[in-house]
Amino acid sequence: MIRFEYIEFLYALLLLPVFMGLHLFVKYWRKNAIQKLGEAHLISKLMPKISSNRPLVKLVIWMLAYVCLVIAIANPQIGSKIEKAKRKGIDLIIALDVSNSMLAQDIKPSRLLASKQAISKLIDKLKGDRIGIIVFAGHAYTQLPITTDYAAAKMFLNTITPDMLPVQGTAIGEAVNLAVKSFGESKHNKAIVVITDGENHEGDALKNVEAAVKEGIKVYTIGMGLAEGAPIPIMKNGKLTGYKKDKSGSIITTKLNVVMLEKIAAIGEGKYIGATNTQVGVNKIYEELDKLEESEFESKTFSDYEDRFQYFLALAVLLLIFEFIIVDRKSKWADKIKLFD
Prior knowledge:
Layout: E1 2-4, H1 16-35, H2 40-46, H3 54-74, E2 76-89, E3 91-97, H4 111-125, E4 130-136, E5 140-147, H5 150-158, H6 172-183, E6 190-196, H7 205-214, E7 217-223, E8 230-231, E9 233-236, E10 239-243, E11 253-254, H8 258-267, E12 269-274, H9 282-290, E13 295-307, H10 309-325, H11 332-337
Parallel strand pairs: 3-4, 3-6, 6-7, 7-12
Antiparallel strand pairs: 1-2, 2-13, 4-5, 8-11, 9-10
Helix pairs in contact: 3-10, 4-5, 6-7
C-alpha cells in the first residue's frame, strides 16, 4: 500500500500549468521582439547559434524535476509489513442529510457543521467498528464505503457540502435503502444512524425502515434543529447574502420534523435523539450502539511504512543538473550527437 505522509504538498503540482503558460508568454514576447528587428530568415542568419527547441527541452526537464521534488516533499511511503488482526465491533453507516435546510443556524454553527463535528467525535470513540457514510438530499449517494480506516472517514467527512448534491429534498427512505445494500453480506451486527431535520421527506421512509429491521439492522435518528426553526441562509464565498424565500417573497422557515424522526426510530427498533445548541446527541447514540453485541472479524493493516522520498529527491537533483548543463545556444558537442536543433 502506498500513501503520502504530507499529502497536502501535492497541491503544489497545480502550478505546472502556470509554468507552461509563462513559458508560452515569454516565447510569444520574444518572437514579436525579433520580428521588429527584421525578416525572420535574415534574423536567423544573424543568430545561427540560437536554438528554438532547447528552451522547451529545458522547461520540460525542469518541470519533471519540480514534480519529483514535490513528490519527495510529500514523502511517499510503502507499507512493508501486513498484519492480520482479529477485531470486534459492529457495522455502522451514518446517513447525513446535506439538503439546503441543513444550513439553518438554529443549531450553531449550522445544522450541517454541527452534524459533521458530532460524526467526527463519534469516529474518535469507535474501536474496531466499521463505519460508512452516506449523504442524501433529493437522492442518496455513498460518500464512503464501509471501512475500518477512521482517518479516511474523517477525510471524506470534511469534503461534505450541500453543493455536492444537485437535487434538493430529504430522501430518508432512499438513504436507508442504500445503507442496507452497502452492508452487503456482512454477518456483523448492523446499525444505521440518520442525521437530519426530517423536513420535506420524500418516498416511503417507514417501509424502507421496516425492510431494514427485517434484515436485522437497527435504525437510529438524530434530529437537527430547534422547535422554533430558522431561515435558510444563502451563502456566497462564505458570506451571508440573504435568506431563501418562497414565491410570495416571504422568508422560508425550516423546522424540525420530530414526529417523523421518532416514528423512524421506533419502527427501526432504535432511538431518537434531539440535538440542542450544546449537544448533538452523539454520546447518547454511542451509548446505544455500545449495547449492540460486537462480532469478531479479521482485518488487514499495514503496521510499518518505509519512506521513499529519497528516490524522487535524487531524480530531481539529476534532472536539475542535466537542465543546468544544457545551454540555450547551439554547441558543437550537441550538434554531433544530434539531441537538439
